[in-house]
C-alpha cells in the first residue's frame, strides 16, 4: 500500500479520536497515536476496530499492542493485506 494513501486513510479513521488537531494535520509515519495525537488507550482500541473494518482484516492482540504509531499501523495493515 502506498504510504501517502494510507496516511490519508488513517487520518480519517483517527480524526474523531484525536485531541491534538495540529498533530492530526501534520500526520506522518512517525506520528504516535497516544503521545502526539493524544488518543487515550480506550479510544486506541476503537481505532484498531475501525482499521479492521476499513481494510477487512483481523488484528491480533499482540499486533494491537505494537500499533502505537502510524508506521506500525501501516506495517501491520500491509502484512495483513498480503495474507489475504
From TrEMBL:
* Segments traversing the membrane: none
Q: Which organism is it from?
A: Chitinophaga terrae
Kindly give the Gene3D superfamilies that the UniProt entry links to this protein. Answer: ACP-like
InterPro entries documented for this protein: ACP-like_sf, PP-bd_ACP
Q: Which domain of life is it from?
A: Bacteria
Q: The Carrier domain covers which part of the protein?
A: 4-81
The protein's name in its UniProt record? Acyl carrier protein
Amino acid at each position: 500500500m502506498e504510504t501517502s494513501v494510507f496516511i490519508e486513510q488513517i487520518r480519517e479513521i483517527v480524526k474523531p479520536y484525536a485531541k491534538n488537531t495540529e498533530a492530526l494535520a501534520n500526520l506522518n509515519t512517525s506520528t504516535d497515536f497516544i503521545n502526539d495525537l493524544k488518543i487515550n488507550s480506550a479510544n486506541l482500541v476503537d481505532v484498531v476496530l475501525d482499521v479492521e473494518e476499513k481494510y477487512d482484516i483481523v488484528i491480533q492482540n499482540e499486533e494491537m499492542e505494537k500499533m502505537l504509531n502510524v508506521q506500525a499501523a501501516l506495517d501491520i495493515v500491509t502484512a495483513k493485506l498480503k495474507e489475504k
